[in-house]
Write a structure and sequence with these properties.
heterodimer; A: 236 residues; alpha+beta; Ubiquitin-like (UB roll); Fumarate Reductase Iron-sulfur Protein, Chain B, domain 2; five-stranded mixed sheet; two-stranded antiparallel ribbon; 9 helices; 7 strands; B: alpha/beta; FAD/NAD(P)-binding domain; seven-stranded mixed sheet; 16 helices; 22 strands; 36% helix; globular
Chain lengths: 236, 563
C-alpha cells in the first residue's frame, strides 16, 4: 500500500486528503489517481488524456517536483506520495489549474511559420536538409504541459512574463530555415515581458519532461535578439 | 452564442476543417469546441506516418488499390480514388506551415514503408507524426482571427429542429454550466470510440461522444462492427508501438525465436496489414507459442538489429516509451507486445462531401465513415483521412453556411437538455457506480469482441451490454458540484459508450462472415455474395435497427486477399 496525500480544492477551501492505494510494479501516478477516483472518491478532479507523455494534460507537482503523472512510476516515489497542482497557475479544482493565460502567452510570440508568399491553394515543397531540421527540432518537442512555467522564478514574480514555453516556441520558429518572421518575434522577445526577464535559474530545463531545454532556447533567443537590436542600431 | 460554423473536436480533422473554412471566407465566424485544449487531443498519439503519393514510382492507382485490398473490398472505391488524389497537397501544406517532416539528405520530404502499402509512402516526422501535425495545425490556426477556440467544453447534444441542424449544447467545464452554440452548420470531428475496450492504444478522452450523439439523434452509424486491432500494443499499458517499428525493419518473434509471419504472410511478413498480423500474433499466443510474462502471454517486437543510431533517429519516442512504461530498452532487449484495440473503422454514415442525413450537419475524421477504410484500415491512412476530409468538411460547411440562415435553438430544447443533464442525471439517486459499469463493459469487449469472435460470445456480449444499460439507469453521481465535475462527464461518457457497444456487438453478431478486422471463427470465409455491403444502424429506444447498403465498386472487383 502506498499513501497518497492529495491537495484538494473545491472552489472555496484548500485541504489535504489521504488515500491508500495498492500499488504494484508498473503502476503510474495517473493510474493511482484513477484508482482513487473510481474506488474511493469520484469527485477527485484531474486532467488526463493520452497517458503516454505526449498530450501534456497531466503535469502536476508530485513529491515537490512538477512531473507528468502518466509517466511517473509510483514505486519510485517511496511509501508516501504527495500530489499537488502546479505552482504559478491558479487552481480551479483539485489538481486542475487555469491554462488559458498560458496558451495566450504562447500565441503572443507568433508561434507559426511566417512567409511572405503564403500560397494556400497551390503550395510548393520547401527543401530543408536534416542539418537545418536539427537546428530547431529539439524545441518542437514542447508539449505545453506547464511544468517549466510552474518553477520559473520570473513567472512567479511577474505576471506578464511570457515564460519558458512561449520563449521556446519563439526560438523554434526563428531557427527554422523556412521562416521569414524573425524580426517580428525578436521584437516580442525583447519586450518588457520577454527574454530579458529570465533569471537564468535554469530550473525549467531541469524539470522539462521532454528534455526540451527551454533555458537553452531562452539563451539562444537572447543572443539572436541582441544581435538583431545591434544590427538595427548600426543600420545594417 | 451564435456562429456561422461550429466544429466539435479539435484533433487533426477538426482543426483542418477550421482552417479550410476560414480560408474559404474570412467573414465566417467559426467556433472550435473541444472537451480538451486542442493540443491535448488524441491525434497527438499517431506515430508512424501519413500516406501520400509524392514520388516517382508511386501512383494514385497503386495507393488506391492498396487501400481497397487492405479494406478487404468493403471500402467505397469512388471515395478511395478521391482520397488518394487529395493526400499529397495536404502533406505539402503542412510542410509550408512548419511541420518538421523528416528529410532526405537532399532536403526533400522523407517517406518510409508501412503495412499493406506497396510503396514507401508513409510521410513521417520521426515517430511523432500526429504530434507534429497537431501542433502545426494548432499553431497555424492561431493566424486566423475568425476562428474562436472554446477549449474544455463538453458536448452533450446536437440540436436538430425543423429538419435542420440548429447548433449544439455543451457543458463549460470550468463553470459547469450549459452553453448553447447556435450555428448555420455543425461539423463533428470527435474521434473514435476506442475506450470501449480495456486494452487499447486510445487516450482516456476517446469515448465516442460525437458518434453516440449523432446516433441518438437518428443519424445512422455505418460498419461499427469493424474495430481495428493494432499488432503492437506495449504491455501492460497498451501504449502504441508504431507500425514504423516494423516498417524500419523490426521483427516479430514467438517464444521459439521464430519470425512466425512467414507462415501467415510470406511476402509482406511483418508489414502485412494490421488485421493479418494481429490474427497471426493471436494465433501464436493461443497455440502456446507466446512468451509468458507477469501480465500474461506476449510476442516480442525485436528492434535490436536496427542498432542504437537508427532507433534514436527514427524511433526515439518508441525507445523512450518502452523504457519509461515497460522498463525495456529496445536497443538491448525485445519489446513485449500484443494486439491492442486501436481504430474505429465504422462511424457516422457520410459521403465524400462529408454530408449526413441531416441538413447542415457534417462529419470528418475517425467519427465519420465515408468509407475509405472498409473492413480494415491501412496504417498511415487515418491521419491522411483527417487532413483530406477535414478540409472537405470545412469547405463544404463554409459554402453551405454562406447561403444558410442562422440556426436557432428553441427554449424548449434548452430546458429539456438542462433537465436531462442536471436534474435527471446529476440530481438523481441510485446505487450503481458508473465506473463499475465501465469496467464490466471493458471486460466484455476485451473477452467477447476481440480479434476472434463467435456466435456464443457475441450473444453473451449483447446480453451483458443490455444488462449494463439497464443498470446504468440507476447510476448515482456522487459529486454534486458544478465546476469541473469530471464525475458527471465520466458518467455521460459511459452512457455514450454503452449505446455504441450495443451497435458493435449486434452488428458483429449479424455479420455472418469474416472480412478484414471482423473475424468469425464460426464463419471463417469472406462471403461476397451475401455480405459485400455496409452495415447501417439506426437508433431506436429498444435498441439498434439494422439495414444494409451496397459497396461502391469502380475499378477493382473483389479477389482473394494474400500478402
Amino acid at each position: 500500500m502506498v499513501k497518497f496525500r492529495i491537495r484538494r480544492y473545491n472552489g472555496k477551501k484548500s485541504y489535504w486528503q489521504t488515500f491508500e492505494v495498492p500499488a504494484k510494479r508498473g503502476m503510474t501516478v495517473l493510474e493511482a489517481l484513477y484508482y482513487i477516483k473510481e474506488n474511493y472518491d469520484s469527485s477527485l478532479a484531474f486532467r488526463a488524456s493520452c497517458r503516454m507523455g505526449i498530450c501534456g494534460s497531466c503535469a502536476m507537482k508530485i513529491n515537490d517536483r512538477p512531473r507528468l503523472a502518466c509517466e511517473t512510476q509510483v514505486l519510485t516515489l517511496g511509501n508516501t506520495v504527495k500530489v499537488e497542482p502546479l505552482d504559478n497557475f491558479k487552481v480551479i479544482k483539485d489538481l486542475i489549474t487555469e491554462f488559458d493565460e498560458f496558451f495566450e502567452k504562447h500565441k503572443a510570440v507568433k508561434p507559426y511559420l511566417i512567409r511572405k508568399n503564403d500560397n494556400y491553394a497551390e503550395p510548393k515543397e520547401l527543401l530543408q536538409t536534416p542539418k537545418e531540421l536539427n537546428e530547431y527540432y529539439l524545441f518542437t518537442l514542447c508539449i505545453k504541459c506547464g511544468a517549466c512555467y510552474s518553477v520559473c522564478p520570473a513567472a512567479a514574480t511577474l505576471d506578464e512574463y511570457l515564460g519558458p514555453a512561449a520563449m521556446t516556441a519563439a526560438y523554434r520558429f526563428c531557427a527554422d530555415s523556412r521562416d521569414e518572421g524573425q524580426r517580428e518575434r525578436y521584437q516580442i522577445a525583447s519586450s518588457p515581458s520577454g527574454v530579458w526577464r529570465c533569471h537564468l535559474a535554469m530550473e525549467c530545463s531541469e524539470v522539462c519532461p521532454k528534455n526540451v531545454e527551454p533555458a537553452k532556447a531562452v539563451q539562444l533567443l537572447r543572443r539572436k535578439t541582441a544581435f538583431s537590436i545591434l544590427k538595427s542600431l548600426l543600420g545594417w | 452564442m451564435e456562429h456561422d460554423i461550429v466544429i466539435v473536436g479539435a484533433g487533426i480533422a477538426g482543426m483542418r476543417a477550421a482552417i479550410a473554412a476560414a480560408e474559404k471566407s474570412r467573414k465566417l465566424s467559426i467556433a472550435l469546441i473541444a472537451k480538451t485544449y486542442p493540443i491535448r487531443c488524441h491525434s497527438v498519439c499517431a506515430e508512424g506516418g501519413t500516406a501520400a503519393v509524392l514520388r516517382e514510382g508511386d501512383s494514385f492507382d497503386l495507393h488506391a488499390w492498396d487501400t481497397v485490398k487492405g479494406s478487404d473490398f468493403l471500402a467505397d472505391q469512388d471515395a478511395v480514388e478521391f482520397f488518394v488524389r487529395e493526400c499529397p497537397v495536404e502533406i505539402i501544406r503542412l510542410e509550408n506551415w512548419g511541420c518538421p517532416w523528416s528529410r532526405n539528405e537532399d532536403g526533400t520530404i522523407a517517406q518510409r514503408p508501412f503495412g499493406g502499402h506497396s510503396f514507401n509512402r508513409a510521410t513521417y516526422a520521426k515517430d511523432r507524426t500526429g504530434f507534429h501535425e497537431v501542433h502545426t495545425l494548432y499553431e497555424r490556426m492561431l493566424m486566423y482571427d475568425n476562428i474562436e477556440i472554446f477549449p474544455e467544453y463538453f458536448i452533450t447534444n446536437l440540436a436538430i429542429e425543423d429538419g435542420r441542424v440548429q447548433g449544439v449544447s455543451a457543458i463549460h467545464l470550468k463553470t459547469g454550466y450549459m452553453e448553447f452554440f447556435q450555428a448555420k452548420a455543425v461539423i463533428f470531428a470527435t474521434g473514435g470510440a476506442g475506450r470501449l475496450y480495456g486494452f487499447t492504444t486510445y487516450s482516456h478522452q476517446v469515448t465516442g461522444d460525437g458518434l453516440a450523439i449523432a446516433y441518438r439523434n437518428g443519424i445512422p452509424l455505418k460498419d461499427m462492427e469493424f474495430f481495428q486491432f493494432h499488432p503492437t500494443g506495449l504491455i501492460p499499458s497498451g501504449i502504441l508501438m508504431t507500425e514504423g517499428c516494423r516498417g524500419e525493419g523490426g521483427y516479430l518473434l514467438n517464444k521459439n525465436g521464430e519470425r512466425f509471419m512467414k507462415k501467415y504472410a510470406p511476402e509482406k511478413m511483418e508489414v502485412a496489414p494490421r488485421d493479418v498480423v494481429s490474427r497471426a500474433m493471436w494465433t501464436e499466443i493461443m497455440e502456446g507459442r507466446g512468451f509468458e510474462g507477469e501480465y500474461g502471454p506476449y510476442i516480442a517486437l525485436d528492434l535490436r538489429h536496427l542498432g542504437e543510431e537508427k532507433i534514436e533517429e527514427r524511433l526515439p519516442l518508441i525507445r523512450d516509451a518502452a523504457i519509461k512504461f515497460a522498463g525495456v530498452d529496445p536497443v538491448e532487449e525485445p519489446i513485449p507486445v500484443k494486439p491492442v484495440a486501436h481504430y474505429t473503422m465504422g462511424g457516422i454514415d457520410t459521403n465524400v462531401r462529408c454530408e449526413t442525413a441531416v441538413k447542415g450537419f457534417f462529419v470528418a475524421g475517425e467519427c465519420a465513415c465515408v468509407s475509405i477504410h472498409g473492413a480494415n484500415r491501412l496504417g498511415s491512412n487515418s491521419t491522411a483521412e483527417c487532413l483530406v476530409f477535414g478540409r472537405v468538411a470545412g469547405e463544404v460547411a463554409a459554402e453551405y453556411a454562406l447561403n444558410a440562415e442562422q440556426g436557432k435553438i428553441s427554449a424548449e430544447f434548452r430546458q429539456k437538455e438542462e433537465k436531462r443533464i442536471f436534474d435527471d442525471l446529476l440530481g438523481k439517486n441510485g446505487d450503481e457506480s458508473p465506473y463499475q459499469i465501465k469496467k464490466e463493459l471493458n471486460e466484455t469487449m476485451d473477452n467477447n469482441m476481440w480479434i476472434f469472435r463467435e456466435e456464443k460470445g457475441l450473444k453473451e456480449a449483447v446480453k451483458k451490454i443490455q444488462e449494463l444499460k439497464e443498470r446504468y439507469r440507476n447510476v448515482e453521481i456522487n459529486d454534486k458540484s458544478r465546476g469541473f465535475n469530471t464525475d458527471l462527464t465520466s458518467a455521460i461518457e459511459i452512457g455514450y459508450m454503452l449505446d455504441l457497444a450495443e451497435v458493435v456487438a449486434i452488428g458483429a453478431l449479424k455479420r455472418k462472415e469474416s472480412r478484414g478486422a471482423h473475424y468469425r471463427l464460426d464463419y471463417p470465409k469472406r462471403d461476397d455474395e451475401n455480405w459485400l455491403k455496409h452495415t447501417i444502424a439506426y437508433y431506436t429506444p429498444e435498441g439498434p435497427k439494422f439495414d444494409y447498403k451496397p459497396v461502391v465498386i469502380t475499378k477493382w472487383e473483389p479477389v482473394e486477399r494474400k500478402y
